[in-house]
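quick one before i forget lol
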Amino acid sequence: MIYNMGKVTIDIEITNHSDENLFDNNFLIAEKIRKVIVDKVLVDTGATTLCLPKNVIETLGLKVSRKIVVNTATGDYVTNIYQDAKITIKGRSCVVECIELPDNRTPLLGVIPMEMMGLEIDVVKHELKLLPDFSSDTYLLALGLSFKTCENLNNNDL
């Protein structure tokens, strides 16, 4: 984790989740699963999801899902959104869509994957911290009620 002038960056592992599915069904060997470590991904609460430069997306072999218009500080532009990017940070993973950025642009980690993995910015330490996921303070919610741990769950709670 690197911090500078209020910016938080993190190194993340990104895997082609479709490759993992092919491996799970014996159609691909483990060595052929495409994955990369992306250094210095900017944690950006103004970004919606994962945003990667085109060359990283090409290395991963992600498939285009659809064309979209993105809003940026420098204006709107049309780009592609890709599917099945599995990201792993601090031992937690999730599969997300990924917005294509031009090459040589800084990769961004947006709020949706951070929410999915229970990651929160520690503004004092300028780092990402893990929120609890197996206690009464869990970040996971369903219908406005937090999930209960196995030890606390009984038939009256169903």
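fyi DSSP finds three helices and twelve strands in the chain.
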